[in-house]
Structure formats: C-alpha cells, structure tokens
Amino acid sequence: MVRLNKIYTRTGDAGTTALADGTRVPKTHPRLHAYGTVDELSAVLGLCVAHTDDAELRTRIQRIQNDLFDLGADLAVPLSAPREVPAIRVHADRISWLEAWIDEVNADLSPLESFILPGGGMLAAHLHLARTVARRAERETQALTEHDEINTTCLVYLNRLSDLMFVLARAAAGSDEVLWKPTRHDGDTES
C-alpha cells in the first residue's frame, strides 16, 4: 500500500522528477507526458462518476480509474529497470473486459449514419471528453515508444478505452445525440 506523509519534497523544483525506479528525468520527458495524460483521463472519468446516478456505471468507471492507476504505474517503470519487487503491468484480461462492455452497450445502439457531435447532456459530454483524452494518452504513449520500450498492452488498453467512451457517450445521450451536419459551400448546413 502507498503511504504519503509529506506532499511536497522540493526534489522536482529544478524541473526533474523521479521515475518509479529512481531514475531522474526532465518533467518534459515523453514518459511523463504519457502517464500524466493517463492521470488527466482518470480525473475526467471522475467527472463522469460525479454526473451519473447509475450505481453500476459508477462502479465500472471507478474500476477503469483503478486500471488507469495500474497503467500509469506500468508507464512509470521502464521495462529495463531492475526491480526487487515485480512492477505493476497492465494485462490483456483488462482489454477483454473493456471489449465485452463495448459489445454490451453497442448492442442497444442504433447504427451510426453520421459522425457525432460531442454533447447530448452533461454525462455524455464528459464521456466524449474522456474519449478525446484517452486518444491523446494513446498518442503520447505511442510517442514514448520512439524513446523507450514499453508494455504495448498499455496502447491497446487506451485504444479500446476510447472506443468504450464513445459508445457510453452515445448511450448516455440517447435521443439527445447530435449528428454532424456538414456545411454546404453556400454556408448552410445540410438537413
């Protein structure tokens, strides 16, 4: 269990931070961008939890927040780091869980006939925001692979998670879902 007695240490005041293996890196390192965005995604999911009365949805999203802490911990420990205690790593069973949930929700949705505009209510809008942050986390994690080797299951998890956020947003919007209407060249939107 993690125990934090002191919140500030002053060790990062010069623009560096320590990875979980003790290695100090600049705060602009791609590894920090990746797991920092994963942390941001968890915060956005906290908004989703705050905007639903659905106890099952709340529980499932909180399970994802736990997964994201695991994913952040995975990214915080380089694969090459020597460890006395095994590092936390994301496993494929979590991806299977996401896929089963996607299939469950998508089965009740009508087929798409256009792109969706983010919105459709407070919960749906926050789920769309979570989708876009998940995509950015995936891009930043992919960028990290240009510098360091990572557990590639993290990338698959983030990709699937953004898909889940999309179908959950559609379900949350229901009849308030707004479809994209391309603008015609004369300035009007198509009906």
Summarize the structure.
The protein is mainly α and 191 residues long.
Key descriptive features of the protein:
Hypothetical Protein Ta1238, Chain: A; 4 strands; 5 helices; two-stranded antiparallel sheet; mainly alpha; single chain
Radius of gyration: 19 Å
The CATH superfamily appears as Cobalamin adenosyltransferase-like
Question: Structural class, judged by helices and strands?
Answer: mainly alpha
Give the integer mean of the pLDDT values. 89
What ranges have pLDDT less than 50 throughout 5 or more consecutive residues? none
* Tally of helical segments: 5
- Domain module count: 1
Strand order of the largest sheet: 1-2
CATH topology, what is it called? Hypothetical Protein Ta1238, Chain: A
- What share of residues is helical? 40-55%
How is the biggest beta sheet arranged? 2 strands, antiparallel
Briefly, what CATH class?
Mainly Alpha
Order of helices and strands: EEHHHEHHE
Instruction: State the CATH architecture.
Output: Up-down Bundle
Shape: elongated
End-to-end gap: 56 Å
Strand content: 5-15%
Tally of extended strands? 4
Structure in words:
The chain has helices at residues 30-50, 55-76, 92-106, 122-144, 153-173; strands at residues 16-18, 24-26, 116-117, 178-179. With 191 residues, the chain is mostly helical. The chain has one domain (25-179): Cobalamin adenosyltransferase-like (Hypothetical Protein Ta1238, Chain: A, Up-down Bundle). Helix 1 (30-50) runs antiparallel to helix 4, helix 3 (92-106) packs parallel to helix 5 and helix 4 runs antiparallel to helix 5 (153-173).
